[in-house]
Amino acid sequence: MKNNRIYAILMLIISMMAVSCMDSYLGIEQPDFGTDTPEKLTVNRVVPMAGALEIHFSLPAGNPNHAQVVATYINKAGNQVEFKVSRYSNTILVEGFTGTDEVTVDLAVMDESGNRSDITQVRDKPLLSPVEVARASLLATPAFGGVKLEWDNKEALPFAIHVLTEDEIQLGVKTLIEDPSKTIYSSDSVNTATYLRQYDNVEQTFGFALSDKWGNRTDTLIEMITPFKEDIIDYNLVEAVTYFNPTYGTTSKDFAEFGVDPVTGLLNDATTHSAGFAPITMFNGVTTANNFLARKFYEESSDGQRTYIDDVYVTFDLRQDLRLSRVQLYPRPSSSYLYSRSSVKRFRIWGTDDANASRWSKFPEGWTLIGEYEGKMPANSASITQEETDYFYNRQEYAISEDNVSLEAIPTESFRYMRLQLMESYTANENFYTINEFKMFGEVLKYY
After folding, report:
1. CATH-assigned architecture of domain 42-124
2. Alpha-carbon separation of residue 205 from 181, 202, 312, 442 (angstroms)
3. Backbone dihedral region of 276: left (phi > 0), alpha (psi from -120 to 50 degrees) or beta?
4. Are 434 and 338 in contact (CB under 8 A)?
5. Separation of alpha carbons 204 and 223, rounded Å
6. Pick from 216, 219, 212, 209: which is nearest to 187 by CA?
7. Residue 142: how many CB atoms within 10 A of its CB?
8. Which of 71, 253, 278, 406 sits in a 20 to 30 Å window from 149, CA-based?
9. What is the pLDDT of residue 23?
């Protein structure tokens, strides 16, 4: 009997809870602000921008239920494009236009219940969009192993450059096909040039079209281009030489004692940390390791203060006569080396050949300055973009002729022996340099 009473009481409680749940909603109820149409907003000013209109407005006073302002227009494809800002803003940026013809934008105020005001129309002319400006300035020219592309992006707005190459879709019928792996993404005003490689040294047709995130796409620039002949220099042939007295050491050395050869009076090569960081590790095909590390010499004052000497040398026998077209530098991949620390910012390439019988006893006499090169800096060091990061780690390239900054250099000279002069690191007070890989491209004239 006792158990039956407990069971009956429990069933009564459950029944009462069920009825209670049916009678009321325990969730968050949608507030009802009525069905009145909000008043129209007032447009104060319209500022034409690149592919956009910046519209300044005022909301009607006295209505606390305003939620947002909605702007819409119909694009050239016939689709409606919509933008929204909250009631706390007094401007709305409407983007995605092309051309400079007058456009119409509809503006409405929406309240908390979703009611919309009557339309306020804005008619004005935007400026040319970023893709149109870039398309007008787009220049495609022959380069070693491919094509050099240059364009303008002064507004630093994002767009893509699509690359089309000739393909034979059936016997005797060729057409331009887009190569997605070659797509270029631009989003800053500094890095507005790139190289497309590797292509054969034959005349061929290239196409280039630009698109933005709004679905706008330009017409296609079509060019007949013959890339210059270029080989990837075989790093397996490269040997380090010891004629300039390279040494190992885990700390920097005194220039007065180790910096100059007492017999020749020439500057010695650098002190490298160990065999695992020796100069030859720059030529092993590994682009993502922590390889070459060369220490700067120092001069010490009478009070014990050390000043590090930026100029450091390393010397190689390439075992081939070559004419360089470009080089790629791969720094250490750690984030602490990104445009910073011991990563090489400025360097020189010196070259000579077997005709220079005094190459190991005289320098720079008898050697040719092939070129001097300086690394780029990000547009804003406090906010480095993903594109700038990718460039630094993976696409840091120097065209031997175009990027040379020395009037004394002869970039077209061929050579067998190379002496790299490291001149500046990204952080001035670092006492060493690092390079993971020094990749070379050019024309090989003779092998040894």
Report:
1. Sandwich (2.60)
2. 17, 10, 45, 23
3. alpha
4. no
5. 8
6. 212
7. 16
8. 406
9. 45
Question: How many Å apart are CA 108 and CA 39, to the nearest integer?
Answer: 9
Q: Tell whether omega for the bond before 198 is within 30 degrees of 0, i.e. cis.
A: yes
Tell me the backbone φ, ψ of residue 182, rounded to 5 degrees: -100, 0
Indicate the burial class of 14 (C-beta count within 10 angstroms; 0-12, 13-18, 19 or more): exposed
The residue behind tokens 């398309």 is: 135
156 CB-near residues (< 8 Å, 6+ apart): 187, 188, 189, 379
Q: How far apart are CA 62 and CA 428, in angstroms?
A: 60
d(CA 348, CA 342) in angstroms, rounded, equals: 16
Q: Please, how many CA atoms are within 13 Å of residue 260, restricted to the half-sphere of its CB?
A: 9
Which CATH number describes the domain made up of 235-447? 2.60.120.260
pLDDT band at 14 (very low <50, low <70, confident <90, very high): low
Q: Report strand pairing: 397-399 vs 159-170.
A: unpaired
Question: How far is the C-alpha of 82 from the C-alpha of 77, rounded, in Å?
Answer: 14
pLDDT in tens, 388-432: 999 999 999 999 999 999 999 999 999 999 999 999 999 988 999
Strands (E), 18-65: 42-49, 52-58
Distance CA 199, CA 227 (A): 7
Report the alpha-carbon distance of residue 42 to residue 60 in Å, rounded: 7
Residue 212: both structure tokens together: 């933005």
For residue 168, give Cα distances in angstroms to 104, 173, 174: 44, 6, 4
Pairing of strands 146-150, 103-111: unpaired
